Amino acid sequence: MAELDRKIAEAQKVLDSLKAQQAYEEKLAPKYKLARMLHEKLCRYNHTDGCSWFYFVKGAEDDWTDYSHATYLAKAVRMLAAANGNGKVVLDVVEAM
Ligand SMILES: [Zn+2]
Q: Distance from the CA of 78 to the center of ligand 1, in angstroms?
């Protein structure tokens, strides 16, 4: 029984972490969503030792002052500005990449 309780507690921790991540992602402004998507689609480095992205994710939240985060955020801001108020299209296009 103790083993089952331990496994349930572990699964609950994973579930809680995923829910926190989901809540964070749902409240992100479009520029942050796009920056995360651009990093995911374009970065070819190891995301810890290569680009350091995951060193600057605390829990579910990103540290946008990190060089890698700031670089992708700047790209996202430029793309959204170029879209001239139609950022949803940019997000859809990048998602389709
Ligand atoms: Zn990366």
A: 19
Distance 90 CA to ligand 1 centre (A): 20
Residue 39 lies in a domain: yes
Could you read off the pLDDT of 78-91 as tens digits, one per residue? Answer: 999 999 989 899 99
H-run or E-run covering 57: strand 57-58
pTM of the model: 0.80
Handedness of CA 22, 26, 31, 37 (dihedral sign): positive
- 52 CA from centroid of ligand 1 (Å): 7
Distance 64 CA to ligand 1 centre (A): 14
* Domain count within the chain: 1
| Domain assignment present for 15 | no
Q: What is the mean pLDDT of residues 10-31?
A: 92
